[in-house]
Amino acid sequence: MIPFFMKIRNLLLLLVLPWALGAQSIEFTDNLRTAFGKIAELRFEEAEKLIAKEEQRSPDNLALAYMKGALVSINLFINESENEFDNRHSEIEGYIAVLEKAPDSDPQKKFMIGQLRLAMAILHGRFQNNFSAGWQFYKAYNLLKNNYRDFPDHAPTYVPLGVLYVAIGSLPDGYQSIASIIGIKGDVKEGMKLIKNGYYRVLNDEQNRVYQQFFGFVYSYISLEFEGNTDISPESLGLDYSKSSYLSYMQARVEIDRGNARKALTLLKKRPKGKGYQPFHYLDYYTGRVALSFSPDTAYLYLNKYLNQTISGNYKKSTYRYLSWYGMLKNDKDLILMYREKVMREGTLNTGADKQAYREAQQAFNEVLIKGRIYFDGGLYDKAAAYMLSKENMLSKFGTEDKVEYYYRLGRIFQEKREAQSAITYFKRALSFPLEESTFPQANASLQLASVLEENGNLKEARVYYEKTLTFKGFPFYEGLHQKAKTGLNRI
Length: 492
Prior knowledge:
With 492 residues, the chain is mainly α.
């Protein structure tokens, strides 16, 4: 049943009838290379014209199926419409079926199919189709692993396979056992090595340099998400992020982690958009979120722009949460109440951000914690520290969860201020309160405490808190914290 095993019959036919290669081959032509770049820049209409031009010139070129599949996949990813995904995901399967006609001797075959399978896994996962996501993930893993075995010099295979190795290798032990049973194994160090090597090898290979932007994004994202490494970014890799919304977003992510939220906002506002570019509404939501701490009116405009233009229910609850915070910054209690009610009624619970917003809306509105968080998110660490410490006399009125979050927030502030001892003190204080149910602040206090201890050379104690992080579960985003904790354990 697995479609990536060698097809003996087809191979024999190709050996006997070599003339058939022209009709059933993958040729990544100049037109398609240019189109691939246009897709990365979200200039879909230009990409479609180039693909159509190539189709007229060489209708039997199987690379056309890969390009069309990539277009559909990215379009479904950025518009986040579950209805459109339900209506169109079968198209990707159709393009995969076309690519299956390519000879197994071509390393592009399994690489391209594996990429489309991985895209399907991500899309199914986004809409909570967990079984289908797992099945597509399994297929992608086997395709890419087999391609790496059969064609070890095919550098483009390194990056998606490296991503899968990192993702699997950072799973908690219980999940890794399940993965091992079905024959998939990961290794974080090996995965990071493959991603890095893959990026630089395609960079130095004219034939495969077309993947540079895409792989640069992946290299930056994985380095930041799993290692907290802000040294790897589109800018440091020499990529022109001004031409790509994806790269602008990635550079903004890195700048926020560096404490440069104002620079991040500038990058996001200047990202390429408008006529000729496919709308990417999520980035309006993200821009509003970044702007809230130092430009609330800008945030209000972008958050409402997202609500007015998105066709998805995703991130609506989270958007209304940020708008309620806008109401707080404007001292407008009616706005706070109106938007908190919308958090409860509108949108979906498909994303961790929406789940967290819904959970917060069910609790009492704590202005101290929210303002401290807003200042922190904007990189205003001195202001955040001064504000939070000035409110310590109010702790007697806080519930236990809010006390945990208060000390966790102080820990994060001093962590970013590079005051390790204060960060350690506050993180440990946050972990000293017993809670009936795990919360994100408590779990991330453990994770970030481990990170600070690791940075300061206390690896033994860091291991204790990375392991402790894995005991917290059941709240939004816990899976991501577990992956980072597992990555930390692998590292030390």
